[in-house]
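In response to the reviewer comment on reproducibility (Comment 2.3), we provide here a single inverse folding case reported in full, input and output, so that an independent group could reproduce the run without further information from us. The structure tokens appear first.
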């Protein structure tokens, strides 16, 4: 298994084996990226590495985490004097990677820089990172990167900068799971992929360009899952866009995990909401609490908006399936809504939020529309006067229906909702806080909290509890002892141990709850209580 080691500059360095690194201390190729957080191990880089053939022995994967210093990363990458460095470029790291590539080009202009990944696969001509790089591989890099490296290393580098990755049959691509090190398996999410692409066309999404979904050979994939499980992997995240499209495949995968249930197993899937055949439901219903998570994209309930952005969604079925998941399964249900879509105003968004809230998902993620490079949503820019941030993450700033100031209010709403609604820490307090219309009430709270604190980040948990107490008592007129008892019970069962000022006057009576993190993240554990 590949060797892993961590350096002080938050890099994770991996080579084929300790022995190979000793025999040949200078890798010809380094594959690198900046992940959003340490727990996200890059699956893309592992595909590239697994498909390098003989060159794999001379290749290292060096992963960083957002926030690492460019000079430190450059030092780390150049330590082994590579001939080629390939970077995985995504919306979350393009700015930092651009600075890093600029630095590398200044210090070591002879090192061949190849960039690839979704962020440089479209509208590449206008990007500084593509200007700086020697080669830009667009689309799938699994086989194209290896082919390019072989040409560069044999002195036959292609003259063109832009190289189309193409879409080779999945059967010709080597699966990357042997590239997960023991440390990855023990401490990071293990990303896996049973299928690639998506048959749907939602215009805000990069996967809408795929036209279809391709499946990996199921038997070979199951064998890889088995190997990962045998090596101790318990936290699996499927990157499939539409896991539940084929009931036979979905249920086979679910059965695999059902046969291997233990109290550490945690599996995450992205699902389309209006398609949950009985066969899948039967398997889903057998998972115990804390072992299964679904990310469900609703995005908007507004049918006119759905039609505008080419999103096919049967709202009635989606609603029934969400109801079923909450009533009949133990799955953690995380649902995505998008604010700022063309044709959608604040009222419509608010109605959608309330409709979704009534279905009681564990988490509602309010995302602000982004104009991702290459996505067809751009065709609505003029008609709906969509104004986007020209820098990543290309978020919409205003539309003909939502003024900039209101968009800012939604951004804060989303942030505070994450801290209060999604965190699972305020379960009791949410009842009085959201009484009536959850959207209107929470927007009122959000406007008040921002006017009071002028902050959306770095609000300590205790301060947040104090603010909710003030809002409930001063703004909503709830009796202080009732508000204090409610919040004290929430505070204690969230596992926190401090003393809040209102608790001095109204000592809590609720028994202390034990924090359990066995099955994954704290936030998920809180939803289970
Ligand atoms: C895991 C994931 C995340 C993780 C982060 C993972 C990490 N490493 O840090 C989390 C959950 C944090 C995340 C967040 C977001 N994500 Co995300 N995420 C994904 C997801 C589901 C899987 C990525 C993956 O592993 N794919 C499988 C591999 C095989 O594909 P790949 O990564 O594209 O790699 C291939 C090619 O791109 C290329 N390639 C990759 N690297 C390299 C390097 C070289 C040198 C070469 C030649 C080629 C190459 O070859 C690979 C093999 O074919 C994808 C959707 C998907 N299924 O791909 C979205 C996706 C990458 N995310 C996307 C978006 C928009 C976001 C968010 C902005 C969403 C939001 N909240 O609004 C946030 C931003 C986070 C932030 N902090 O700002 C977009 C990317 C848009 C872009 N231009 O980068 C995607 C494609 C979803 C979509 N369909 O629109 N995400
Ligand atoms: S939003 Fe989901 S269903 Fe729509 S194109 Fe993207 S991945 Fe496919």
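Designed residues, in position order:
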């Amino acid at each position: 298994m590949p060797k892993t080691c961590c350096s002080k500059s938050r890099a994770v360095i991996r080579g084929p084996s300790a022995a190979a690194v000793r025999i040949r201390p200078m890798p010809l190729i380094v594959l690198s990226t900046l992940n959003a957080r340490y727990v996200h191990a890059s699956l893309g880089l592992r595909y590239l590495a697994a498909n390098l053939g003989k060159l794999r022995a001379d290749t290292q994967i060096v992963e960083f985490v957002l926030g690492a210093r460019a000079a430190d990363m450059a030092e780390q990458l150049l330590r082994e004097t590579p001939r080629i460095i390939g970077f995985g470029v995504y919306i979350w790291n393009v700015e930092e990677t651009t600075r890093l590539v600029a630095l590398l080009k200044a210090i070591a202009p002879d090192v061949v820089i190849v960039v690839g990944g979704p962020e440089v696969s479209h509208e590449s001509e206008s990007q500084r990172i593509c200007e700086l790089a020697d080669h830009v591989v667009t689309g799938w890099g699994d086989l194209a990167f290896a082919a390019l490296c072989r040409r560069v290393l044999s002195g036959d580098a292609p003259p063109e900068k832009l190289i189309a990755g193409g879409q080779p049959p999945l059967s010709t691509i080597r699966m990357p799971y042997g590239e997960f090190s023991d440390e990855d398996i023990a401490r990071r999410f293990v990303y896996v992929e049973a299928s690639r692409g998506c048959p749907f066309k939602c215009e805000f999404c990069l996967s809408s360009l795929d036209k279809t979904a391709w499946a990996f050979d199921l038997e070979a994939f199951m064998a890889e899952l088995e190997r990962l499980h045998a090596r101790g992997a318990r936290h699996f995240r499927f990157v499939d866009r539409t896991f539940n499209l084929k009931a036979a495949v979905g249920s086979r995968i679910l059965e695999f995990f059902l046969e291997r249930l233990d109290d550490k197993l945690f599996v995450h899937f992205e699902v389309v909401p209006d398609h949950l055949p009985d066969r899948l439901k039967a398997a889903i219903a057998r998972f115990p609490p804390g072992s299964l998570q679904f990310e469900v994209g609703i995005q908007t309930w507004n049918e006119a908006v759905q039609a505008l952005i080419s999103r096919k969604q049967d709202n009635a079925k989606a609603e029934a399936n969400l109801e079923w998941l909450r009533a009949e399964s133990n799955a953690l249900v995380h649902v995505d809504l998008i604010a700022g879509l063309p044709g959608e105003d604040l009222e419509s968004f608010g109605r959608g939020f309330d409709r979704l809230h009534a279905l009681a998902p564990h988490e509602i993620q309010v995302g602000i529309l982004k104009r991702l490079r290459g996505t067809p949503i751009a065709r609505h820019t003029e008609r709906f006067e969509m104004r986007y941030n020209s820098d990543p993450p290309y978020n919409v700033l205003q539309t003909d229906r939502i003024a900039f100031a209101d968009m800012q209010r939604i951004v804060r709403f989303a942030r505070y909702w994450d801290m209060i609604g999604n965190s699972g820490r305020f379960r009791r307090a949410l009842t009085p806080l959201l009484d009536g219309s959850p959207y209107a009430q929470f927007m009122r709270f959000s406007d008040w909290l921002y006017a009071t604190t002028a902050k959306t980040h770095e609000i300590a948990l205790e301060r947040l509890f104090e603010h909710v107490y003030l809002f409930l008592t001063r703004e909503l007129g709830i009796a202080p002892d009732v508000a204090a008892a409610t919040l004290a019970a929430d505070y204690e069962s969230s596992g926190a141990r401090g003393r809040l000022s209102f608790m001095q006057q109204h000592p809590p009576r609720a028994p202390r709850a034990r924090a359990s993190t066995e099955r994954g993240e704290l936030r998920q554990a809180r939803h289970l209580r």
